[in-house]
Amino acid sequence: MKRMRNGMLLFLIGSSGYSLIEVLWRKYTHWTMALTGGVCFVVLHGIFRRCRPLWKKCVYGAASITGVEFTVGCVVNRLLGWNVWDYSHMSGNLLGQVCPLYTFLWSLLCIPVSGLSRLLDRHLLTDKS
User: Fold this and answer.
1) Best exposed site among 66, 85, 115, 120 by fewest CB in 10 Å?
2) CA 79, CA 81: separation in Å to the nearest integer?
3) Alpha-carbon distance 50 to 33, whole Å?
4) Cβ neighbours of residue 19 under 8 Å, at least 6 residues apart?
5) Which has more confidence, 128 or 122?
6) How far apart are CA 36 and CA 105, in angstroms?
7) Whole-angstrom Cα distance, residue 67 to residue 103?
8) How far is Cα 32 from Cα 88, in angstroms, rounded to an integer?
9) How do residues 4-54 score in pLDDT, each as one tens digit?
């Protein structure tokens, strides 16, 4: 039960945070991005708990986020045709869903997210009984 509660809490934090970043960056977001953010933060938290060096957290985190974004993009944008985003104008893009620039930016974002994940682990997700 505790594991599910922690997972839901991580999902809600990731969902809210990702949506906030989208609104600050693009001035709008889409509900699918909230779901994507929740999934990403749960995945990142798992990576960050197992991985020590910060550079590895950044590399694995950026690869994970990019993978999730690519998967969601292929479903939401290409299969369903919702056109939530289109990176086809960006250099090095893959099917217009992801690009190297955003992968790099995700790696930088993993620095503070790693700290947040550690704080949550220490203060909110621990069993204090």
Assistant:
1) 115
2) 6
3) 26
4) 29, 33, 34, 37
5) 122
6) 17
7) 10
8) 20
9) 999 999 999 999 999 999 999 999 999 999 999 999 999 999 999 999 999
H-state helical runs in the chain: 2-26, 31-50, 54-73, 100-123
Residue 87 in contact with residue 26, Cβ under 8 Å? no
Report the 10 Å Cβ neighbour count for 8.
12
Question: How does DSSP assign 56-87, residue by residue?
Answer: HHHHHHHHHHHHHHHHHHIIIIIIS---S---
**Residue 17 structure tokens:** 């945070």
User: What is the C-alpha separation between 95 and 64, in angstroms, rounded?
Assistant: 17
Q: Residue 98: beta bridge partners?
A: 94
Residue in the structure block whose two tokens are 């809490």 = 9
